[in-house]
UniProtKB/TrEMBL annotation:
Gene name of this polypeptide: boxB
Enzyme class: oxidoreductase
Designated name of the protein: Benzoyl-CoA 2,3-epoxidase subunit BoxB
Alphabetized NCBIfam families for the sequence: benzo_boxB
UniProt xrefs under Gene3D superfamilies: Ribonucleotide Reductase, subunit A
PANTHER family reported in the protein's UniProt record: 1,2-PHENYLACETYL-COA EPOXIDASE, SUBUNIT C, PHENYLACETIC ACID DEGRADATION PROTEIN PAA
EC number: 1.14.13.208
Single GO term (MF): oxidoreductase activity
UniProt keywords, alphabetically: Oxidoreductase
Length: 469
């Protein structure tokens, strides 16, 4: 399905045929552009080598070229419709998917879309000033690619709100631009999207861990019986993959540089050589992983059970599951704290769907840690990086209010406080990382704290001038 770029709002949803919807979105567009100018990237640029979607097929869907950021063509793109698609789970299993919102599910679907939509501009706001300290033009370009695609994902959710939810949807679309990350008066809905992203190590961790949460949330919405939401999320997942690539390879390169200096100087104390020590990298892993786990909510949730039963939100890769897709009799094992220890609790699987999704996410996160440890092994170093226990540093769910060490031991508050500085970034750690954040804008050059990438973008060399300042 080709995308029509002759329209004021590029789209593949025949927007030209719906004058009311087109006018409503064209009225929202100037407010989006104003938000972008005020809350988008702070570094002035002439143009950036960006990827723009030109179709939604499996092959040849993207075009690369230098584009001025304010001129980027944000639009509305849905994956191609499967006319034979049927609901894969819940009480409506086997029936045709919905092209309109059933009245009884209107409020719940709108809430799901609003929460997803709120995360998209939030990350742009969090990353607003990172361009001022980019370690290379390659990294600067990747930052801006992530930013414009988060902006497009906001458009994706706003289209659904305008097209299918009437006045209340239009009001929610307006509110998406009124909340701001970290604002005391109007913060973003989810806690992780009010955290600071003050440095590039945090950015790489965010795009690895928090954008990976986005992958799994979009994956559950892709299963939805509401077909426009499913098709929207299917295409968003294509774009989201690049964001996780930035995180995965970004941490790769930080670990690679640390390993090189540890080997060259036969020492763990590499901060004095302008690098980020492994123990600091581990603390950032601990923080960003635990904060991202909170995004999955509590282990048990009647709301999520109701979403599943209604067909609004499925499980990750629902149709590959070997069960009845109803879960009325199934049970699940989830961890909890009992008598000062972490133990297993058997619960109805239908109310433990958050824990199920979190388990899929944790297994995926582990692949990155194994990858980073292989880099250490290749340099003759011990593979010391790890994911902390799922109960570590949690503010949401069954572990909230408990003090769980990275190895899973339940501690009293005094022991936890005594160990905090070994497990989470300290003010001194953050100051050291920030001190390394000096911009490098010369093509082919890179900051000393991070290794260069193995490959450039779209076949271009690392030394290519990805951004014109």
């Amino acid at each position: 399905m080709a995308i029509d770029y002759s329209e004021r709002i590029p789209n593949n949803v025949n927007l030209a045929d719906d004058r009311r919807l087109r006018r409503a979105l064209e009225s929202w567009q100037p407010r989006f552009l104003q938000w972008w100018s005020e809350m988008g990237p702070a570094l002035p640029t002439q143009d950036v080598y960006l990827r723009t979607a030109v179709a939604v097929g499996r092959e040849g869907w993207a075009h690369f070229d230098h584009v001025a950021l304010p001129d980027y063509r944000w639009g509305i793109f849905l994956a191609e419709r499967d006319t034979d698609r049927r609901i894969a789970f819940g009480q409506h299993k086997g029936r045709p998917v919905w092209q309109q919102v059933p009245g009884e599910y209107r409020a719940d679907l709108q809430r799901l879309i609003v929460i997803q939509g709120d995360t998209e501009p939030a990350s742009v706001e969090q990353q607003r000033r990172l361009g001022l300290t980019a370690p290379s033009l390659y990294d600067l370009r990747n930052l801006f690619q992530v930013n414009v695609e988060e902006g497009r994902h906001l458009w994706a959710m706003v289209y659904l709100l305008h097209a299918y939810f009437g006045r209340s949807g239009r009001d929610e679309a307006e509110a998406l631009l009124l909340r701001n990350s970290g604002s005391e008066d109007s913060p973003r809905i989810l806690g992780a999207f009010n955290e600071e992203t003050p440095d590039w190590l945090s950015f790489f961790m965010f795009t690895y861990f928090t954008d990976r949460d986005g992958k799994y949330q979009l994956g559950t919405l892709k299963e939805s019986a509401f077909d426009p939401l499913s098709r929207t999320c299917e295409f968003m997942l294509k774009e989201e993959a690049h964001h996780m690539f930035v995180g995965t390879t970004g941490v790769d390169r930080v670990v690679e540089r640390a390993a090189q200096l540890m080997r060259d100087h036969d020492s763990d104390d590499i901060a004095k050589y302008g690098a980020i020590p492994l123990d600091v990298i581990q603390k950032y892993i601990n923080f960003h992983y635990s904060v991202s786990l909170d995004l999955f909510g509590g282990e048990t949730s009647t709301n999520v059970a109701n979403y599943f039963t209604a067909g609004l939100k499925g499980r990750w890769q629902e149709e590959r599951r070997g069960d009845d897709h109803l879960l009325t009799e199934a049970v699940a094992v989830v961890p909890h704290v009992e008598r000062g220890q972490v133990s297993d609790l058997r619960l109805p699987a239908l109310t433990a769907l958050n824990a199920d999704l979190r388990g899929e996410y944790a297994a995926d996160c582990l692949t990155g840690v194994n990858r980073w440890n292989r880099i250490l092994t290749a340099h003759g170093l011990d593979p010391t990086l790890y994911l902390p226990h799922v109960g570590f540093n949690r503010k949401v769910g069954t572990f909230a209010g408990h003090h769980v060490a990275p190895d899973g031991r339940v501690l009293d508050e005094a022991v936890w406080e005594a160990g905090r500085d070994r497990w989470l970034p300290t003010a001194e750690d953050k100051t050291h990382v920030l001190a390394l954040m000096r911009p490098v804008y010369e093509p082919g050059k890179i900051a000393a704290w991070v290794a260069p990438p193995r490959n450039g973008i779209n076949g271009q060399p690392f030394a290519y001038e990805y951004v014109h300042l």
